[in-house]
Design brief:
Blueprint lengths: L5 H20 L6 H18 L5 H13 L11 H13 L9 H6 L8 H8 L2 H5 L6 H12 L5 H29 L8 H4 L2 H9 L4 H16 L3 H12 L9 H7 L2 H23 L5 H12 L7 H13 L4 H23 L4 H18 L8 H8 L6 H8 L16 H21 L9
Helix pairs in contact: 1-2, 1-3, 3-11, 4-6, 4-8, 8-9, 9-12, 12-13, 13-15, 14-18, 16-18, 18-19, 20-21, 21-22
Length: 442
């Protein structure tokens, strides 16, 4: 197929820029019909033009789309208020793992800075009740972003956004190198770099999955270039940003020799422990681990298999069985890790990426909470495989934002059912036929 001409490239960039500008400055979270419709329109545009773009066109248009958000305030998530809160605590000598924001305010521990009261009022009741659940490197990022603007929410947002854009640029270049190593079309990187979900959730809403991904992909690149200790450290940095890469450790154990596993294990664990000690030395791990357990036992949003099991629980028990499910979910995940690592994992790198993709997808399929930005890691892994169900999911998961436009934040189970029916349908086709449903998305 002929590459996209310069005229049509300019037209594509201008029209898409208008959509991203609307997300950054015009739309409110409660306008669910406009929000999901614009999400879908942006994805349709990428669907029809991405495979005709050169890597230079992908790079420059993706960069423009990201910098359109540079002066915007996130609209789809309140999490950034907590990010700033945690960063300011660290910069003032307090551990974000020692007190919940409510405890901090109640005990009059606030330093003389009115920004704390603003952040506490805007972060949301759920976040204010609990200790921070963000790992140490994530906390360091919050600290860096708030260090230069301790009295300005907008200044902190600006620095966080620049860090996240920098991480995405790293994903672009390292991702291209990995695609080239695997003999895959490097234009596939557009399905990450131009994906509306990635642009809006990372640059727009300031989630840090992209920072985790650059460390993880860089670790893979170092590993295939026999830089084992460097790979162990970058994998450690990935885990210290988001815990998700812990799921993949057993897959990599099967991919490596015993000697390399020992070297990576000792190096990675030592690095993570030494890096984390200053954060937990005075407060311990109890508060942090208790907060992590809440994700299994208390929170629900955009689930699939979990919601079916919950409905059965209501029919049999007469009440929500989330706490009972939360007790066994970690064991189900451990079994899945074992199965994907020891029965499916192969020595070839593309098969390793497939195992990681399917393992993480299974984890999200049984999870009680699946925010849209969770799908970003699946999108990045899918670039190196034949599977396209994650791309379909990235187009559909924004329908979960309809919840915020409903009274009392009630979920629309019809839309959730449609979302997962299509995702499961594409995945089943690709598993049975052993080929992608979208052959032109190569």
């Amino acid at each position: 197929m002929r590459p996209l001409s310069r005229l049509y490239f300019y037209l594509f960039t201008i029209l898409s820029s208008a959509g991203y500008y609307a997300f950054g400055y015009l739309i409110e979270r409660e306008q669910s019909l406009i929000l999901t419709g614009l999400f879908g329109l942006l994805f349709c545009v990428i669907y029809f033009v991405n495979h005709r773009l050169s890597t230079n066109q992908i790079f420059w248009s993706g960069l423009i789309f990201r910098f359109l958000f540079i002066f915007s305030i996130p609209i789809l998530s309140q999490d950034f208020y907590r990010f700033i809160w945690d960063g300011l605590l660290l910069n003032n000598g307090w551990s974000p793992y020692a007190f919940s924001p409510n405890e901090f305010m109640t005990n009059n521990l606030v330093v003389e800075n009115p920004i704390f009261e603003i952040l506490h009022s805007k972060m949301g009741e759920l976040s204010a009740q609990h200790y921070s659940n963000y790992p140490p490197l994530n906390q360091l990022g919050f600290s860096l972003a708030t260090y230069w603007f301790p009295n300005s929410i907008f200044g902190s947002i600006l620095l966080m956004r620049l860090l996240i854009i920098l991480a995405d640029l790293g994903v672009f270049f390292v991702g291209k190198s990995l695609l080239n190593h695997l003999g895959l079309p490097i234009e596939r990187i557009g399905w990450y770099f131009l994906n509306p979900l990635i642009i809006i959730e990372l640059t727009g809403n300031l989630h840090w999955e992209g920072v985790m991904l650059i460390f993880f992909l860089l670790g893979v690149w170092l590993l295939i270039n026999n830089r084992v200790i460097g790979a162990a450290i970058t994998f450690g940095l990935s885990v210290l940003t988001k815990l998700i890469p812990l799921l993949f450790l057993a897959v990599f154990i099967r991919h490596q020799t015993i000697k390399r596993n020992l070297l990576m294990g000792v190096s990675g664990v030592t690095f993570c422990v030494l890096f984390s000690l200053p954060f937990f030395f005075s407060v311990g791990l109890e508060n942090y681990l208790n907060t992590l357990q809440l994700w299994f036992k208390n929170f629900e949003f955009n689930g699939s298999i979990y919601y079916i099991i919950r409905w059965i629980g209501y029919q049999v028990k007469g009440y929500n069985i989330i706490r009972q499910l939360g007790e066994i979910t970690p064991f189900i995940i451990l079994f899945a890790v074992f199965a994907f690592s020891f029965f499916r994992s192969k020595k070839k790198l593309d098969k390793v990426f497939e195992s990681m993709l399917l393992l993480l997808a299974f984890y999200y399929f049984i999870a009680s909470i699946v925010h849209p930005w969770y799908v970003i890691t699946l999108v990045s892994l899918s670039l190196f495989t034949r599977y396209r169900f994650a791309l379909v999911w990235s187009a559909l998961v924004p329908v979960s934002y309809v919840t915020y436009g409903n009274p009392n934040f009630s979920e629309n189970y019809l839309l959730i059912g449609l979302e997962y029916s299509l995702v499961y349908g594409v995945l089943l086709y690709e598993l049975v036929r052993k080929e992608t449903l979208f052959k032109h998305l190569q």
